[in-house]
Write a structure and sequence with these properties.
Helix content is 42%, strand content 15%. The chain is globular. It has two domains: 208 residues, 2-enoyl-CoA Hydratase, Chain A, domain 1, CATH 3.90.226.10; 48 residues. By secondary structure, it is α/β, with parallel strands linked by helices. It has ten helices and ten strands. Helix 4 crosses helix 5 and helix 8 packs antiparallel against helix 9.
């Protein structure tokens, strides 16, 4: 697929997806979503890729849905809003709750890091919630914006956001639509770390490369699945699943390599098997 509104590159075990409409602060369009979906699927199908890195071009991460989409919806109503549309084949193993717009991202085996380089607003705030880790530039800003547009908490945000920042903080962010900076996002737990703006791209990629090369990709995939599944389980069900996964991991090559590289005091050579 030839991409027009994203950039895609892979190397050192990392696939980088860059939202690429810098003149519009990477405002989200139907074409961008189609290309994003394709790139995520391609990265997960590539055996050389172990980690995905999502970022934006220029000074913004994503300013939300392109205003042309919102204007069309305002004039014609929900029939053209496209909110029920999808342009992706849902993974066969995905449970019903994960066969929804954007929630399918949580079923992908490889972790995705959101590298928030600038403003993340509206839908541009929602998309990083479906990343497994979020790193912010010191220049990043976050705003839900929906209440100022006469809209609602979109695409599962009402489920995701309170689990990340707590109920009271989530309600304040949603109801007030206030803008918060990277330091506040870190304090709330929305992002795991803040990196200096001037070195952000290189340091975010270095973090992703280290994750791709220093740990078992099989472990990453299993743990990602465990965490999201456990969010809808009781603790006993989670423990039972963990026991079965532990038995399975002991028979895997990566477990043996994990022991060998430690005893031999060398860098690991995990295969994902």
């Amino acid at each position: 697929m030839t991409y027009q509104e994203i950039l895609y590159g892979a190397g050192d075990g990392v696939a980088t997806i860059t939202l690429h409409r810098p003149e519009r602060l990477n405002a989200w369009t139907a074409l961008m979503e189609k290309e994003f979906n394709h790139a995520v699927m391609a990265a997960n199908a590539d055996p050389e890729v172990r980690v995905l890195l999502l970022t934006g071009a220029g000074r913004g991460f994503c300013a939300g849905a392109d205003m042309s989409l919102l204007s069309a919806a305002a004039e014609a109503g929900s029939t053209v809003s496209g909110h029920r549309h999808r342009d992706v084949d849902f993974p066969e193993h995905a449970p019903a709750a994960m066969r929804k717009r954007y929630s399918w991202l949580l079923t992908m085996p490889k972790p995705m890091i959101g590298a928030i380089n600038g403003a993340a607003v509206g839908l541009g705030f929602v998309i990083p919630l479906y990343c497994d880790l979020r790193i912010a530039s010191s220049a990043a800003k976050f705003c839900t914006i929906f209440s100022k547009r006469g809209l609602i908490a979109e695409y599962g945000m009402a489920w995701l956001l309170p689990r990340m920042v707590g109920l009271s903080n989530a309600m304040e962010l949603l109801l007030t639509a206030k803008m918060i900076d990277a330091a506040e996002a870190h304090r709330l737990g929305l992002v795991s770390r803040v990196l200096a703006e001037e070195n952000f791209a290189s340091e975010a990629r270095a973090f992703a490369v280290d994750l791709a090369q220093s740990v078992s990709s099989r472990s990453l995939a299993v743990m990602k699945q465990q965490v999201y599944k456990a969010m809808q389980q009781n603790i006993g069900e989670s423990i039972d699943d963990a026991y079965e996964e532990m038995l399975a991991s002991i028979d895997c090559e990566d477990f043996k390599e994990g022991i060998r590289h430690f005893l031999e005091k060398r860098a690991p050579a995990f295969t994902g098997r």
